[in-house]
Amino acid sequence: MPTVHLLDYVAGNVRSLVNAIEKVGYTVVWVRSPADVPSAEKLIIPGVGHFGHCLSQLENAGYVEPIRAHIKAGKPFMGICVGLQALFEGSEEDPDVKGLGVIPSRLQKFKDTDKSVPHIGWNSANTSRTGEVTDESLYGLRPSSKYYYVHSYAALYKEGELEKDGWTVATARYGDEEFIGAVEKNNVFATQFHPEKSGAAGLRVLKAFLEGKRSQPLPEKPSAASTKEGLTRRVIACLDVRTNDSGDLVVTKGDQYDVREKDGVSAGGAVRNLGKPVEMAKKYYEQGADEVTFLNITSFRNSPVADTPMLEILRRTSETVFVPLTIGGGIRDTIDTDGTKISALDVAKLYFKSGADKVSIGSDAVTAAEEYYARGKTLSRTTAIETISSAYGNQAVVVSVDPKRVYVSSPDATPHHTIKTATKGPNGEEYCWYQCTIKGGREGRDFDVRQLVTAVEAMGAGEILLNCIDKDGTNSGFDLELINDVKAAISIPVIASSGAGNPAHFDEVFDKTTTDAALGAGMFHRGEYTVKQVKDHLQEQGQLVRQFEE
Ligand code: 1PR
């Protein structure tokens, strides 16, 4: 097989990139030291996390000059995500750190006044702008395709700025900001999106770069409308995974977090078995899921951390599923079976190495947020959220929230933040607050969801997975009041979860709230609806979606 050199200078999910490269017929040769760079014919620099962290790693390890020399020699070079950003002169993220300076411009943070930041999801990368239409595809990029982005800083597009120096630029729009999604000149190509996480559309781009096919005819004429689109409606399939009573790892699904069969006489039967995790993840990917989330709802108490069965599930899933993978459950400081202490950061590292793009933190986030308030809203820099986000970037840390409604007769009846609700309580109460729970909903805390989400945003979480125990498994639609209340409090993206029972519920949550994504579980697992049916329905209602590409 032909080869490509890959520089692994930062921790992160490089496994998915390796899988994607192998899928398109190439073998990875690792660059382990600056001395390896001159032997590279094609060189890829991936990147996640902070601009400054990546660039200082490159600088300190002595890679900057060999990379510049590779580019100068006219050999093929591709940068991905922070690998694209590295080509610029610098970034607002770390103003004192110098980029490679190949592209004479700087990166800025997206405005969060009218939209969530980070920019997470599927967006375009179009070379044709302002209505002018080309029929040529730059490295397989297509106007009708969508690509997966996750970043807070971007090269904002200024018409003509880079073109005058011979760069070809593909852009996307986020709110009212147009930014660079891909850029190319001679032997240099870079994408802000992750091709390895962008399904068939991304694999096509990677293949075109590796085969040196800069320009190909487009299969269809692009429409002027497609150049104006932004982020698509993100639909996520969630798999709760646990061991059943015979010790097999199964996808299960609870009703208000109770995952045992109810036999009609009493609760407490066998754990519901809805299928095998790896097969089901692949099925949802092929139906068009924009992301797949695994929540490990068993603790695997007898297994050493490095042998946790979820690691193998991720490794196998990332071989066939080329969209982002999130893993939750047990991300916290842990004592291993042999008594060794393992930090949450090390647990997360194992997951990232196995193919996860994000980790989701539940119970530990609640405890950390309570301590944040107890310290007078100061950071400790030692919590799982802080340590993982400072090493891997905020976008890699999701906080999974499991709130429950507590009804009160008036806002004065509790010190907690209440909302006036249209769904009255059992005694006609018109107000409720959302109580945070830990341990899979088993323990309620004297802490409300607003306190939690604002604290974890300050601590460095990049996204909120907003469950709702009252709605979970009910098929009655999302808790729109909860979602609107949380969205009003923070500017990081929110994934609405719990209650989806049919495609119209997805339309409703995107229509009536400003949620950034919506997640379904039971309706997909029970085979009542496919992800494709949800996407088709959204499209019929005029919502922008990404459809699965072969
Ligand atoms: O506390 O960091 O170890 O994380 C544990 C994780 O496992 C948390 O994210 C918590 O939400 C989850 N979890 C724990 N117990 C359960 C359970 O069901 N017994 N599942 C559980 C949470 C809820 C959603 C579900 C949606 C959509 N699952 O993820 O998929 O509610 O369901 P629906 O569309 O069928 O209504 P830690």
UniProtKB/TrEMBL annotation:
Pathway in which the depicted protein is active: Amino-acid biosynthesis; L-histidine biosynthesis; L-histidine from 5-phospho-alpha-D-ribose 1-diphosphate: step 5/9
Enzyme Commission number(s) from the entry: 3.5.1.2
InterPro entries: Aldolase_TIM, Class_I_gatase-like, GATASE, His_biosynth, HisF, IGPS_HisA/HisF, IGPS_HisHF, Imidazole-glycPsynth_HisH
Recorded GO MF terms: glutaminase activity; imidazoleglycerol-phosphate synthase activity; lyase activity
Keywords per UniProt: Amino-acid biosynthesis, Glutamine amidotransferase, Histidine biosynthesis, Hydrolase, Lyase, Multifunctional enzyme
Pfam families: GATase, His_biosynth
Binding site for L-glutamine: 81
GO biological process: L-histidine biosynthetic process
Family matches, as SUPFAM superfamilies: Class I glutamine amidotransferase-like (SSF52317), Ribulose-phoshate binding barrel (SSF51366)
Domain Glutamine amidotransferase: 6-209
Binding residues annotated for substrate, in chain numbering: 330, 467
Known catalytic reactions: 5-[(5-phospho-1-deoxy-D-ribulos-1-ylimino)methylamino]-1-(5-phospho-beta-D-ribosyl)imidazole-4-carboxamide + L-glutamine = D-erythro-1-(imidazol-4-yl)glycerol 3-phosphate + 5-amino-1-(5-phospho-beta-D-ribosyl)imidazole-4-carboxamide + L-glutamate + H(+); L-glutamine + H2O = L-glutamate + NH4(+)
Domain of life (superkingdom): Eukaryota
Active site positions, chain numbering: 81, 194, 196, 240, 402
Residue numbers spanned by region PRFAR binding: 362-363, 400-402, 472-473, 498-499, 521-522
Signal sequence bounds: none
Role summary: IGPS catalyzes the conversion of PRFAR and glutamine to IGP, AICAR and glutamate. The glutaminase domain produces the ammonia necessary for the cyclase domain to produce IGP and AICAR from PRFAR. The ammonia is channeled to the active site of the cyclase domain.
Entry's family note: Belongs to the HisA/HisF family.
Protein name: Imidazole glycerol phosphate synthase hisHF
Organism lineage: Eukaryota, Fungi, Dikarya, Ascomycota, Pezizomycotina
